[in-house]
Fold this sequence. Notes:
Layout: E1 2-4, E2 7-8, E3 12-17, E4 31-36, E5 41-43, E6 53-55, E7 62-67, E8 81-87, E9 98-109, H1 120-128, E10 144-152, E11 162-163, E12 177-178
Parallel strand pairs: 2-10
Antiparallel strand pairs: 1-3, 3-8, 4-7, 4-9, 5-8, 6-7, 9-10, 11-12
Amino acid sequence: KQALGGFATGNEGRYRIAVANIGQLPSSGSYTVQDRLPTGMVLAATPTGSGWACNGATGATEFSCASTAVIAVGAANAAVIELRVRVLDSALGGGATSAVLNNAVLVSGGGESVAYQPSAAEIANFNGNPAALPECGAAPARNACRTATTVQRSASVAGTVWFETGSVARQLDPGDTRLGGWTVELVDADA
């Protein structure tokens, strides 16, 4: 599972989920991806992916997708799941300007032998303590993992540009001339 781009309150964020076979046999039958969004994130749309049957309505906090595409040993399903989420103000709680949220994912099924099925600890952490799951990486090693996603509070700037001809310096007054069509760009000198 991978976060794509930045995440800010009041905006959409995107994830991509790829499923790989770390077992000793090719997958068989149906396998399912379950995802529980952290507090403050909701689905912006039902997830999609070629060959995936997904459920989860706009505004929901969890979803699942199933596929029967055979995955060879050591390979990944070429079709990924694309996920769009809406980041709510509640993602940050209180007055925080940023926070790290853990988005958990769990894969099961596909004819896994008992040794490769999700463990009781993975299931428990997926359901209640996603921070205890390992981070999802490029080389999958588990049935459950998390993506630590930094969310920032959105900001906006609005104002008026004017030519200073009035009686009060650095303050818009009736003697100043408003200038339309100007764009003001804020630049972070440290970036």
